[in-house]
Specification:
globular; about 250 residues; single chain; 3-stranded antiparallel β-sheet
């Protein structure tokens, strides 16, 4: 047993909708007696892929004494549920051929090869001018009181988005202050604290979050919402979800 990050469910908020269940790749969550519950501590990796999928904000990541995450135990448990650990699937669309290799672990880490067909009128020689107006950009590095945040339109970007969305600079970054992060690789709670400070002291004009469609990327929207709620500032957060193919899937406010 050791103190580590692990999922915590507030049963007073949970309405048993089950949206978190398919977004836990390890199968650590189940609906029991009408509430989402953690089946075993050792099945939970503490990365929070389920965070962005609870409409009631009943799921958080906390630190407490718990059994260490056991990948072998997860593999055995998934086998009892009839879930395959690995398969390859090819999906053909009008524009792309995708090859998916599915393995255990976070869905956002699963390998996918996107084989794109060039559009007939695609001019790959068009130069896009950078719209970046500040440095640094990493959320862990930006000072909360940086002058470029004052009364700014703030853009929080999951760090994979600019690679997937080709016109990121023109469509989203132009005219905005930006902070970039990855909730899977960094501590989402530290993100929330930094964002709380940024929102509280800078009289922001707007907040936009760009995230990828993979489940674990929902953690960045959750961190922004937590930071906003803790700051005491009543400002809407626009969340834009980007597909791996670089398309806008959804726009919503939280």
């Amino acid at each position: 047993m050791a103190v580590r990050k692990i999922v915590s469910i507030d049963e007073s908020k949970c309405d048993g909708c089950g949206l978190c269940i398919p977004n836990c790749a390890e199968g650590a969550l189940a609906i029991i007696d009408g509430k989402a519950k953690l089946i075993k501590d050792l099945y939970c990796d503490g990365l929070g892929a389920c965070l962005g999928h609870c409409p009631k904000d009943a799921i958080t990541i906390i630190e407490r004494e718990a059994e260490e995450f056991d990948e072998k135990a997860v593999e055995e448990f998934l086998k009892t549920q009839g879930r395959k650990m690995q398969h390859v699937q090819e999906t053909k669309t009008k524009e792309n051929t995708e090859v998916h290799v599915h393995e255990g672990g976070c869905p956002g880490s699963r390998m996918r090869m996107l084989q794109r067909k060039e559009a007939e009128n695609d001019d790959s020689n068009v130069k896009v001018t950078s719209k970046l107006r500040q440095w640094p950009v990493q959320l862990q590095l930006v000072p909360a009181a940086a002058p470029y945040f004052k009364r700014a339109d703030l853009l929080i970007t999951a760090d994979c988005v600019p690679f997937a969305y080709a016109n990121y600079h023109n469509d989203f970054l132009k005219g905005k202050a930006v902070a970039v992060g990855c909730p899977k690789l960094d501590d989402a709670m530290s993100y929330a604290k930094k964002l709380e400070d940024i929102i509280r002291i800078n009289d922001l004009e707007s907040i936009t979050v760009l995230r990828m469609e993979v489940p674990c990327c929902g953690g960045i929207a959750q961190a922004v919402k937590m930071g906003r709620d803790n700051s005491g500032v009543n400002i809407p957060i626009k969340v834009v979800t980007i597909s791996l193919e670089g398309e806008i899937l959804k726009r919503e406010y939280i």
